[in-house]
Amino acid sequence: MQRTSFLFLCSMLAYFYLDAQIKDPKATEVWEPEPRVVTPGATTNAPPSDAIILFDGSNLDEWSNNDGDAAGWKVADGAMTVVKGTGIVKTKRNFGSVQLHIEWRTPAKVVSEGQGRGNSGVFLNGIYEVQVLDSYNNRTYSNGQAASIYKQYMPLVNACKPPGEWQTYDIIYMQPKFNKDGIKVQSGTLTVIQNGILVQNNIEIKGTTPYIGLPKNPAHEDGPLLLQDHGNPVSYRNIWVREID
Ligand code: MG
User: Fold this and answer.
1) Structural domain includes residue 233
2) How much distance in Å is there from the Cα of 121 to the middle of ligand 1?
């Protein structure tokens, strides 16, 4: 028998022996440390007590345009809306791994089709896109429809509401890790829940999400949350994050 298999057998025997010795259920209870209390919001969409509020419907103080100047999107009726040609908006703060809540709405008046209908996007770390699109009765490539990790992973299901209705994304993003030479040593991951429905289950991010070409893996640290101007008047509201240590 090889040394490694012998050691494996020994550890398995030790495991079963220890297990057989345990008669008290308390022996497997863990009491310390105790997870800290976070007060849930009144509804599932309201920010919890430790959230950083990025947009509460009143102003774009937390946001800038791509050049770092004032964001050009319109704020009205508690929402921010893409103004075609003003470009992306991004948070002034940088984030690493986060839990993100964001609500979005594609225009009630259906214009165009495929990728041209209600297109925007939520970019984690500024470079990894969770697609925003009116994918209600609007076929396009599956890895480019709403809730896809753009050009990498199609959503598990199509959880879209009709155009003109508010929809939610709850996203858990764990950023990738790079070594000192700038080589990726651990992939980032994404979990996405759309309107309360699991659509991306802890997928491994392959890299950036370009329109053309393959994912790239430039070394990076924390980055902004970025929302795409794809020329369609998509709206956002109630945006908050919780940083994950
Ligand atoms: Mg997009």
Assistant:
1) yes
2) 4
